[in-house]
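Q: Could you fold this chain for me?
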Amino acid sequence: MIPPGGRVSSARLVQLLGEWRGKGSRSVSAGLAAGIRLLMYDGQLPPGTTLPAERDLASALGVSRTLVASAWDALRAEGLIVSRRGSGSRVTLPAAAARIEVSVREQPLDLATAAPMAMPGLGSVVDAVRGAFAAELSGHGYFPLGLDVLRERLAERFTVRGLPTTPDQILVTNGAHHAMALVLRVLAGPGDRVLVEQPTYFNALETIKAAHLVPVPVAMPEEPAEGWDIEGVEAVLRQAAPRVAYFVVDFQNPTGRRLDADGRERLAGVLRRTRTPAIIDETLVEVDLDGDPLDGPPPMAGFAPNLLITVGSASKSHWGGLRLGWVRTSEELIGRIAAARHAHDLGSPVFEQLVLAQLYADPDPMLREHRAALARNRSVLVEALREHCPDWRFEVPRGGLSLWCELPAPIGTRIAVAAQNVGVRVAPASRFSVHGGLEKRLRVPYTLPAPQLVDAVQRIAGVANRVTGSLGTLGSDGLIPVA
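A: Sure. Below is the predicted structure, expressed as C-alpha cells.
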C-alpha cells in the first residue's frame, strides 16, 4: 500500500488499475477516471499521494496524453485531485481538502501504536454492503448480541480453526478492550486479583486497573525457546488465588511468542486443576506471517471449554477503524455478559458489522495479501535494525506486529522520551509491566509503510547513539547481537 503523502509511479498505478477499461463508463477517459476514483475510495491512493505526470502515465497505459488529461480534469472537477504547476497532481478527497496542505510527513512517525493500515480492498467491501445496510434502516438498529450474520460467520471461522462454535456462543463488541471489560465485569469484582503475563499488552493492564482489579504478574522466561513459565503460573494460581487469568498465547504482545499445542494442554491442565477461568486474547491470531492461521495450534479454548473465554478483534487483522471485537464462550456466560452490557452500551454499530461480516464471507484471500504485506514490512524493519542498531538483540517472531528488542543498556525510557524530539513516537517497555521496569527492552512495530520504518529506525539510532555514546558496542553483560 502506498503511504500517505507518498508518490505512486506510472508502473505501479497501471498495476493497481488492472482492467480499468469499460467499467460502466461511456468513454475511455471516464473509465480511467472511474478506475482511479475507486482506488482513492478504497484507500490505495490515500490523500496526499503524488500522481505520475500525465505524459508518463499515458505512455505506461498506451493511450494518448489527451485521454489522461481528460480523466484528470474530471477528477479535479469532483475535488478528488489538486494540481499545481511545477509540483504535479495530488490526491485530495473532499473531506481532506481543508488539510491537504499540511504534509503527513510532518506528523510524528508512530511506533507506539502496533496497528497496521486498513487491508487493501476494504473500500470495495464497504461499497458491497450498501444494499444490506439500506435493508437495516427500517429497523431500530439495536443488537446487544450483534448481527446474526456476523455471529454466524465468526462462529464458522472458529469451527474451521478447530473449535466447534455456534452463533449463540458469540457476542459482538466494540473491540477487544470492550470485550475484556465486559468479561471482567461478570467474572470479578473490585479488589479481586487477575493473573497476567509479564510483560503483557499495556491496554489490557489499563482495562484491569480501570475495573479496580489487581494484576498479579508471572514473568515470562528470558529465553524465547522456553515460552511460558507454566510452573510459575500454577504457583501463583495456588498462592494468590486470582479470580481470573489473562493470556495472549498467539504472537504474544509484546514478545511475539506463540504457545504450542503441548504447552496449551499443560496450561489448560493447570487452569482445570485450580478451577481458574481465563480470558484468552486472540486479537493477533490471524496475523500469522510464516504460515496459515488455519494450520496453527488449536484454539486455546478447546483445551478447557468450561473455563476459557476467548476475546478477539478485527483491529490487527483487518483495520482498527472498524472498532469491532467479540467474545466466544458458553451460551450461559454469553447471556450473563449480554445482561451486564446494558450498563455500558446497547450494541455495536450496524454498518461496521455488515462490513466485517462481508470480510468473513471469504476471509482468506484478503488476509493472505494483508499478511504478505506485513511480512515484507517485518523484513524491512529487521534489516534496518541490524544495519543501524547492530547491538540490539531480538528474535524474529513468526507472526504478530512487532519486534521485542533487547537493548545494550537500561535506556528504554530515555530513548522513548528523546525520540519524540526527532519526530518518533515509541512506547517505553515499562508500560508493558505491572510495576514498571524492563528498561533494557523496547517494542518496535513494523506496521508503518516501509520507507517510514527505515526513517524511524535511523532517527532512533541517532537518539540511541547520543544516549549511549556508541551503537556498535556490546552491553556490559556481553550479549551477542542476533544475526
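A (continued): DSSP finds 16 helices and 13 strands in the chain.
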